Amino acid sequence: MGIADRREREKAKRRDTIVDAAEELFFSKGIANTTIDEIAETVELSKATIYLYFKTKEEIYCAIVQRAMNLIKTSMQEAAKKGKNGLECLYLQGQAFYEFYKTHPNYFSALFHRELYNMLQGKENPMIEDILTQGEELFESAVAIIKSGIEDGSIRPDVDPYKAALSLDGIFSGLLKVVSIEEDHLMKYHNVTPEELIRYSMELIGHALINKDNDQVMSQCKASCPEDKKSPGKKQARKKIKEINQ
User: Fold this and answer.
1) pLDDT tens digit sequence for 219-238
2) 68: domain CATH number?
3) What is the per-residue pLDDT across 181-202, written as a single tens digit (0 to 9) for each?
4) How far is C-alpha 141 from the chain's CA centre?
5) Within this chain, do residues 200 and 127 fall inside the same structural domain, yes or no?
6) Do 192 and 88 have their domain in common?
7) What's the structural domain count of the chain?
């Protein structure tokens, strides 16, 4: 490769190093409590060098959100490929979203961080445009899956694909945010595990969407839900909460 190609690789590598350092600081301290100086010190670069790559720390945060979007988008696409019909594809995507939340909790939080939405208001930035575009692509993918489910007979023919996709996004995103904040509360006061709540919610969604004329679809889709774990008894739940709080 030529000199120009090598310089581009080095530039991309340095940019990734900056984002890596910012991730660690943002996730441990929060965006508001992290400064560009701290990021520069962590990667052993001057503050001026950081500004060659990012104008503000909010832009660095956008780069982190881009990473999160890339991960969730790839995960959802791969999950949908395994479905035998439209409804099962939705189940598998719901499971993939849940696995993303469990495996990458910081990225999950980044996607729903209030400061992200403040940054999206009235600003033109290629990274923000990319985030919005990827979000729309995920939405359009859900719409397409619902349409395919109507066509293959697994989803009711009277379902509006666009309204259903919007509803599913709001329901499942909200549900995971509740689980992420109140996991100990669910176990302590309701004796319900997150996995059990997610599974039950997915089954409710399935019952709302399923084409009742196709009796075999629901049993096939249930197998795609998160593993059904029995709720712990009160004694076990209190023990678990005690361990969490220690």
Assistant:
1) 555 555 545 444 444 445 44
2) 1.10.357.10
3) 777 888 888 888 888 888 888 8
4) 15
5) yes
6) yes
7) 2
Which domain-ending residue is among 54, 69, 85? 54
> What count of other Cβ atoms lies within 10 Å of the Cβ of residue 133?
11
Closest CA to 22 of 33, 12, 11: 33
Tokens representing 74 are 């790839």
Q: What are 151-176's pLDDT values in tens digits?
A: 999 999 999 999 999 999 999 888 88
Q: Bridge-partner residues for 210, per DSSP? A: 155
Quick one: three-class SS letters along 48-101? Answer: HHHHHHCCCHHHHHHHHHHHHHHHHHHHHHHHHCCCCCHHHHHHHHHHHHHHHH
Based on the fold, state whether residues 18 and 78 are members of the same structural domain: no
pTM reported for the whole predicted model: 0.79
Domain span at residue 32 reads 1-54
| Furthest C-alpha separation in the chain | 66
> What's the CATH number where 1 sits?
1.10.10.60
CB atoms within 10 A of CB 189: 12
Secondary-structure percent of the chain, ordered helix, strand, coil, rounded to 5? 75, 0, 20
Percentage of the chain beyond pLDDT 90 is 45
Distance, CA of 8 to CA of 152 (rounded, Å)? 47
- Residue 206 pLDDT: 87
Same domain? For 32 and 73 the reply is no
